[in-house]
Amino acid sequence: NFNPVDIAVSYQKSGADAISCLTEEFFFQGKSDYLKNIRTAVDIPILRKDFILTNIRFTRQEQSEPTPFY
C-alpha cells in the first residue's frame, strides 16, 4: 500500500526537481489518475512512465493531457 501523492509531496519538499510516475497498471500497479492527483499537489514537472504494449493503450496515451516541462 502506498499513497503516490504523499510520496510526490515528500520528494518535492526534499528538493526534487521533477517527479517520475509509473502509470502502467498490469505489471507496476500504476494508474493514470496518479498523474492528475500528483499534479494538484506539487508544482514541479512530472514524467509519466508507462509501457505501451497494445494499440488500445497507445491511443489512450495520445489522448491523455500532457504535462509541459519547464
Rg over CA atoms, rounded to whole Å, is 12 Å
**Net shape:** elongated
Give average pLDDT, whole number: 81
Helix segment count?
A: 4
Share of helix, binned: 40-55%
Low-confidence stretches: none
State the separation between the terminal residues, measured CA to CA: 31 Å
How many strands, what sense, and barrel or not for the largest sheet? 2 strands, parallel
Beta strand count = 2
Topology:
Layout: H1 4-13, E1 19-22, H2 25-28, H3 32-41, E2 46-49, H4 55-63
Parallel strand pairs: 1-2
What is the gist of this entry?
With 70 residues, this protein is mostly helical.
Q: Which descriptors would you attach to this protein?
A:
11% strand, single chain, 2 strands, mainly alpha, 70 residues
Describe the structure.
The chain is mainly alpha-helical and 70 residues long. It is built from four helices and two strands, in the order αβααβα. Strands 1-2 form a two-stranded parallel ribbon. Helix 1 packs across helix 3. The radius of gyration is 12 Å and the shape is elongated. The chain starts with a helix and ends in a 7-residue tail after the last helix. The mean pLDDT is 81.
